Each structure stands twice: as structure tokens, then as C-alpha cells.
Amino acid sequence: MTPPSPSSSTPKTDLESAPLSSSSLKNTTLTSLSWSSLSFSVGTKTILSPSTGLLRPGELLAIMGPSGSGKTTLLSTLSRRTPPSSSSSPSPILLNGHPLPLSTFQSVTRFVEQTDSLIGALTVREALDFASKLSTASLTPKERRQRVEGLLESFGLVEQGDIVVGTVTNRGISGGQKRRLGVAKELITGPRVVFLDEVTSGVDARGGWEVVSYLRKIARRDNLIIVASIHQPSTATFNLFDKLLLLSEGKTHYFGSVDGLAEYYETQLGMMMPVHVNPAEWLLEQVNIDYAEDKELARGRLEEMQMGWERSELKRQLDGDVAAVAAAAEKGDNKFVLGDNETEDKKPGMARVVMALVHRSFIKSYRDVVAYGIRLAMYTGLAIMMGTVWLRLPATQDSIIPFTNSIFYGSAFLSFMAVAYCPAYLEDYNQYAKEKRNGLYGATAMMLSNFLVGTPYLFLISVVFSVISYWLSNFQPTAKAFFTWVFWLFLDLLAAEGLVVFMTSLFPSFVVSLALVAFANGLWMSVDGFMVPPGTLNVFWKYVFHYWDYQKYVFENMMINEFSERVYSCAETADGCQCMWQTDLADQCLIRGQGVLDQYGYKPGYMGKDVGIMMAIIAGYRVAGWLVLKLKN
């Protein structure tokens, strides 16, 4: 079958001969990737039987097999994301015949997920630029631009360079272009080995061919080793691969060149490969027994094919080649040496990483309405609703309960609605998880940048909400009281967002994190002192939850802000003046606001201590989130 002709998006230059703008992307140090007796088990169940393989620079390997055959397990183990069950050396995955420390291995390899972890609000060019900034500090701005433009040209993405990847409100680039961008993002960091999980996932046959075609050309030009799991490629796509590793039920059935497949099956197993049939489909049919009518017969045939591989000359030759590479390494030959762009001192420091992450997140924050735009609109709507429901309340005793209800509602629901941040943080978390596994940055940089980007927006929300609702409801009309109100709303939102970050980091699932954050805020609302005054709150809830409930300190200080320095007129009747709260101003037909506070046990003068406690709670959520990120693999 003739491969499809390149589309208009394919670069006109010859990719196999055209160099990138930065020569450091070309591999000159890696001569082999090999593994021997690589296996993986869960308890007593073997997921991956001992596997052996050898790859040279410029080669493109396809890992194929039916569902449940162990493709993803092998790929994860080869990339050292999953530790092997057993090995005969410190690491059975060898570069130039040498086992490398995990940190060094991560610095020269990259893993492209099956599901694209791309920030949709960035343009294609920005995505590559930030990937470069997070991976190396040795490039000048000009060199970085040249490297970005070189990869855009190499992957046929020049025309899409200024188009966003894709958000809820902006469709962005196509699935095939996203797949190419995902690979380009990893290549810009100068790896020597690239692992791809389900390389054609989410794209059609044409898009799959384009992705693999680009990979083949890049591998040839830059001497890279590329390992990709693939489910069921078209004939044209399958023929682009140099080598095939065929799996079934965790066992190897073939490892060798794609060109030698037909000869192997005919001479070793006596099976003729049909001429006018997709070889990938035919191979999968031979090693898949899920739909066989006679399971025992099919399993026996499968075992014969697997044993045929174990007895084959091709297997003996592979074992010999792997042993020869290991023997040469023992003599000190072909020792793997890091290139200039891979050394530790060339990596950006913490400050540079945080600055890059802040810049990237800031771009996302104003382009993607899910990040803060929707929340700002929600809070603005809530402020208008509150201001018009509790509209121009007079300073009378009839307004005291409505004032109290409004204070509770405003503070509690403001923090409750922070659940809207869950989807935006989940995108950041997924991006972090991928970039952490690729060794770009860790939990500290992630948590710092997230806090620095979110803080100005939360302050803006606090001001907008207060400007609308505070004056409409006619709370204490002084500048001091207004700015104190804004300050406590700001702390409220900081704590609420910290809770979202912690819960979502702990359970990175939209439904689970949403439910947990909502439940936690419901708990805080119940014990913050409004529903049940602190003096009568159940001992368990008071001492276990009440004192570290951030809503408790917000509600208390907002109440003090409104009532401590304000008086309210009593109701005048034919029988005289009737005051609902008896204070020292009763003879003047007035209620001193402190009388309202006394029923809650609130007294002014503790704001400094309460601010300190709130700061500790805010920091505590962030530290807890940092610990979760730090401890997760």
C-alpha cells in the first residue's frame, strides 16, 4: 500500500537532512538502548514476562499487541516510570550498556502520554517556548527562538504557530496537530530517547501516518531512539517503523525488523502472511485469543508461537547482541557521557522555573475563562443578588438579623463557590504530573507559582464583590470598615482556594475533588458559629473542627467589623421604646452593636491574633498540598 502523499502542512524542507537551529538536539553520545530479563508482576500475577531488546540511534520501535498484552506496562517499565519486578543488575534498562541513576536517565529521556497534557490557552509557539524555558537555562533568547522555529518547521506546525491549542471557548488545533505538538514539546528539551504511549491515539489513519512519519524523519536526522506503543496502525503507518516488538499476555512473540516479519513467520512457524492484508491486523489476529471459539485450542497455538520465538535463531542473535553490548560496557567501552545541554548546571534554577510557570499560568488565567473569568462572573452575580436582596438596610433593630444573615451568606458562599476552581487546577495538576515525571520541576515550584498567580485575582474578586454588595446593603458606611471587609473576604478566598488545591492534589478527579471540597465547606458553614453560637456548640464539633475552621474567623471578624462600633435604633411603639437587645443605650432607645456580639461571645481586640491564625490555615493548606505532590510518584 502506497503511503498517502504529504499534506500542505508538511514542511517543504527535507527533514532527514535539514538540521535544527541548535545542533545540541542531535544525539552524538548515545549508541544503544538495551534491556534484558525485564519483567513486571503484581503480587503473584505476572503482567510482563522477561523481555529482551536492543535499539540503535535512528531506529523507531513499535510495541504491538491486543488489549491486556502488556504494551503499556512494558513502555512504563522501559521508561522507568514503573520499577521492574526483578533484574540481574541495578537497572535492566541500559544506555550504551550502562545502568544510569534515575535522575540522569530522566534527563535524557522523555515520555509522551497517551492523553495530551497540553495547556489549551497557550499558542503552539508558546507551548514550545515554555517547554524550552523549563528544561534549560543555557540558551540565549535568540537561540531559544531558533530552536522553537526549527521544531515548528520540522513538525509542520508553522502555520499553526500562533493558534491556541484549544480551550472550552476556542477549538484550537486538530487532534493530529496536538499529537505532533506533544512530541515536539519533548524533543525541544534535547532527549536521546523518546517513549510514546499509543502514538496514534485520538487521530484518524491519515493523522496517524503523519505523526509516525514525522517521528521517523526526526529519529533519522537527530539519531534518536523512539519507542512507541501502538494499537492497530494502517499498513502505511506500520511500514514506517523499523522494528516491532509483538506481545501477547505479557510474553514476547517477536522482536526484530518489520521487513523480516514475513520470513520469520514462514520459516520459523510455517505461517504464510497474506499479501493483500494489513500485516498489523493479521499479526494481532494471530496473538489474540479473546474471541476464539475454542479457547484451549487457541491457547495451545498461542503457546506454540511464543515457544517458537524462544527457540528461534532471531532470539538467540538478539540475546547475543545484548550480551555483547553489556560486555563492551564492562570493559569501559561506549561509556555514556552527558551532553552540554544535559548537565545539572544548565538546568534553570528555582527562581527561573517559578518565573516561567507564573508567566505561563498568567497567560492561561486571562485567556481561559475557566480559570478565573467564570469565577469573577459568578461572584459579581452573587454580589448583585446579595446587594439587591439585602437592599439599603437601615440602622434599625429590624435590620440586625438580616445584617447577620448577609454577613454569613456572603462569607460562606464566597468560599463555597471556590469549587469552580477545580477544573482549572486539574489541568495545571495534570501538566505538573507529566512535567515532574520528565524531571522538569517539582512540587515546590508548582505550589509557589500557583499561589503567586492566583493571589492577585482573588484580591480583585474580593474588591469587585465588596464594591457592589457592601454599599448596596448599607453595612457600616466608613472607609475603615469597608477595607476591613475586603481584607477578610480576601483571606476567606485564599483559604478556600488552598482547600481546593489540597483536595484536588489528593484526589485528582473532578467529581471526587468537587464532592470533597463541597462537603468540607458545608462542614465549615455548620460549625463557624452562625448556625449554632460557639457557646452552645457541641463539645466535639467545637474542639475538633471549630477552631481551625477558617470561615469561623472570617464570620467573627466581619461581625465585629459591622457591630462593634455601630448603634441601631429600637422600635418605638405606643407603649414606649422596645429594644430586642438590652444594652447601656436602652434609655436612649438605641442598641449598642456590642450587645449583638455578646450573644456570640465575640469581642474586638483580637484581630491581629485572628489574622495570624488565618495565615497559618492558608499556609497549612498549601503545605499539605505540597506534601501530597511531593509524596506522589
From TrEMBL:
All residue ranges annotated as the ABC transporter domain in the record: 33-274
Task: Kindly list the GO CC terms recorded for this protein.
Answer: membrane
Q: Does the keyword Nucleotide-binding apply?
A: yes
User: Which ranges does the record mark as transmembrane?
Assistant: 369-391, 406-426, 447-473, 485-503, 510-527, 611-629
Q: Which UniProt keywords apply?
A: ATP-binding, Hydrolase, Membrane, Nucleotide-binding, Transmembrane, Transmembrane helix, Transport
A Pfam family: ABC_tran
Provide the membrane topology annotation. Answer: Multi-pass membrane protein
Regions of biased composition (Low complexity) lie at 72-92
Where in the cell is the protein located? Membrane
According to its UniProt record, which protein family does this protein belong to? Belongs to the ABC transporter superfamily. ABCG family. Eye pigment precursor importer (TC 3.A.1.204) subfamily.
**In its UniProt entry, what is this protein called?**
P-loop containing nucleoside triphosphate hydrolase protein
From which source organism is this entry?
Apiosordaria backusii
